[in-house]
Amino acid sequence: MLEEAQGVVAQISGEDIAAAARYLAAGLCMGIGAIGPGIGQGIAAAHALDGIARQPEMEGALFRTMIIGQAVAESTGIYSLVVAIVLLFVV
């Protein structure tokens, strides 16, 4: 059994390790990069709904402001997607 394992390990090249590291890095980039925008957008929506519940006449202004804030928060997630794509296809 030990000889089989050593044979398998001997077949692994540096390119295989680099490819595995590239996929792992891209996955971590998207995973960690999506947590922040998700939390931020949830908080923004919660506070906008709180404001609309308190002052229903301000619904239009609060909704527009919430959408702009969520678009800014989502840009971080899009940047992490771009970095993940660069890691997969360029590096």
Describe the structure.
The protein has 91 residues and is mostly helical. It is 90% helix and 0% strand. The protein contains 3 helices and no strands. It has helices at 2-11, 14-54, 59-89. Helix 2 packs antiparallel against helix 3 (59-89). The longest helix is centred in the middle third of the chain and has 41 residues, at 14-54. It is elongated, with a radius of gyration of 22 Å. It starts with a helix and ends with a helix.
Protein traits:
single chain; mainly alpha; F1FO ATP Synthase
Treating each run of at least 4 consecutive H or I residues as one helix, how many helices? 3
- What Rg, in angstroms, do the CA atoms define? 22 Å
From the coordinates shown, what is the CATH architecture? Up-down Bundle
Amount of beta strand: under 5%
Shape, per Cα inertia axes: elongated
Q: Give the fraction of residues assigned to helices.
A: over 70%
| Broad structural category | mainly alpha
Q: Give unreliable regions as ranges.
A: none
According to CATH, the homologous superfamily is F1F0 ATP synthase subunit C
Count of the separate structural domains: 1
Largest sheet: none
Assign the CATH class: Mainly Alpha
- Fill in the CATH topology: F1FO ATP Synthase
Mean pLDDT: 90
Strand and helix order: HHH
The N- and C-terminal alpha carbons lie at a distance of 36 Å
- What's the number of extended β-strand segments? 0
